[in-house]
Batch of 4 targets.
Target 1
Amino acid sequence: MRTMTRAFVGIATAVAIAGGTVAAAGTSFAASGHTAKTAVTSESVTVLTTNNMGLSAARAKRLQSWLKTYWGYTGAIDGVLGTNSWKAMQRFLKSYWGYTGAIDGDPGAGTVSAMQRWLKANWGYTGGIDGDPGPGTQAALARFCDAV
């Protein structure tokens, strides 16, 4: 009897979940005049990537100023490295440091690898070109920001 009760409760639970809930199952079918509206469309959503790579806001502002002067950054000098900051950095890296990815503002492994090549050649980065923005990459980027 106990096994049969558990089976019945399990089936009833599955039916209730599939229907929304037992209490709402009757009303969800009765409300035919109600139509659902989409709250957000895919066209209105923009995912912003923010990644300061360990930089303080002051250093990130210096990097943004440099990117604005030389690489077409058009955003605010706010100390937050977002999508537009990284797009400008990717334009720089594509021009000189072997970045081959899209100018999409995502500071992924390809962006970081190109940045590591630049930092290794000029700003004291001694680690591998591995696309991992670890402490060595962050310290070299900070040195650059302190110099601009």
Target 2
Amino acid sequence: MWGRMIRWLLPLALVAAAGAATAVAMNASLRSTGGTVKTATASKYGTVLVNAKGWTLYRYTPDRKGVSTCAGACAAYWPPYLVKATSKLTAGPGATASLIGKIKRPHGLAQITYAGFPLYTYTGDRKAGDISGQGFQHTWYMVDSRGAMVTRAAAGKPPTTTTPATTTTKKAWG
């Protein structure tokens, strides 16, 4: 009976270990960008913050200025944007240097902040430019160049539809 149980549990343990190793490797690659914050265009959301490698940066609504509340399992899925505590921070194109800062984290690391709020990446984003964390559980949002959370699509000109007899303007709702 024990042999059967071990044969059933061993593959599950191996899958879990492989998943954890992948998450750790991804976290390390996402955070090793030297403390650069810049901007990029995110489809219908407009200009948002990204790290040096182009990975989207997010804010967590329960956080406060200078305080990260995402740890443990939360941080496994939403890795804090970490650098060595002594790292120099850099404002890339579109970012404001005076808004970039850092807060202390364990083990000699620091988490990068923008406008005082901690920044994170998302393990569900598979490549630079992905925005799959946007609006997740109504608590995770991209950040614009002023440091505000991007909670809806960027406002643009309302679409215009032309028909044979009239022209109407429809209001765009994000």
Target 3
Amino acid sequence: MDQPGPRRTALITGASAGIGLAFARVFAEHGFNLVLTARREDRLQAIAADLAQQHGVNVRTIAADLADPDAPKRIVDELTKAGVAIDALVNNAGYGLPGRYASTTWDDQARFIQVMIAACAELAHRVVPGMLARKYGRIINVASVAGLVPGSPGHTLYGASKAFLIKFSQSLGLETRRHNVYVTALCPGFTYSEFHDVNNTREVVSQMPKWMWLDAETVAREGYDAVMRGRFVHVNGRVYRAMVFFVRHLPESWVLRATLSQSRKFRKQ
């Protein structure tokens, strides 16, 4: 497994809770300095102090809302001015937009696309040249099993945004691999975090059986190991790997019917 020599720095978005916070802990344990970004500045500062004390790493925080189209440039410009080079990027920030497509506003959907697609692509675009020049880089795009299975009603662009991250990761990874810049799309299923509280679907997803749930720390550790080994796509959990296998091999019409019948259990429609 790759180990950093001199201190390297990881930029992690959505780092104030859940999978993002778990990634911050994992990278700190492996000796990376950190740049943590999320909307909650007070929460970020508390996390930064804790990680710096526990692991002896430098931790910067940048409060930013990635729904703002100027946020990715502002984040990278601030780091460049401070002389901080980004060696690892974890595009983790994300959320779900409940409801059927026609019942939402376009402003809400546009913000969703900015956070889930545009910001991820732009941050990668801004840090990859430096990675290529230094012959080292690791990028984890936190996608989802939702990007590997048929879409379902409700949260209409969620699966589409995750499918984008998977294809984007594969293409970018093929372009950069020979320069020791690895890109991984991480595909967890249901994971214990604040995600479902933020999008008001906690009551709905609580109906799911416990064996379908993953914990954020395991997801992050597997993601770290996957990118260090140069895996293009990693699906977390045996249950979800089996699900993806069957989806790929069963007739699409069967899968779509099953998705429709089950979607009310995990999608607010």
Target 4
Amino acid sequence: MKTQFRIGIIGLALFAAGGAALAQFEPEGSSAIVYFPHLVDGGSAAREQWRTTIRLTNTNHLNRSASVELYVLDDEGRELSLDFGNGPSARHRVVVPANGMQVLTSRGASSEVRSG
């Protein structure tokens, strides 16, 4: 599963949790597309249940929020619906306040593991 972030950012740091932490910092005033190559979500409570947490941090000191568009794609590049708290969707929009953070955690709602 490939996850694409399209970001109009003002000093944004992106972190993906799950064993190893990844971080990418973008300069103030930039616009960037960032890819995270792996997400895992779902499964049965009796066996294994997976969730993915994405932390979006805006380090801007000029009091500007960052607008983030998150697109979740499967291995074939098709949209893959995941629930990050607002219902299942392949597209999620998030505003990260200046000097703030937004945390997205998938609900693990699928009975089968979705992984890429």
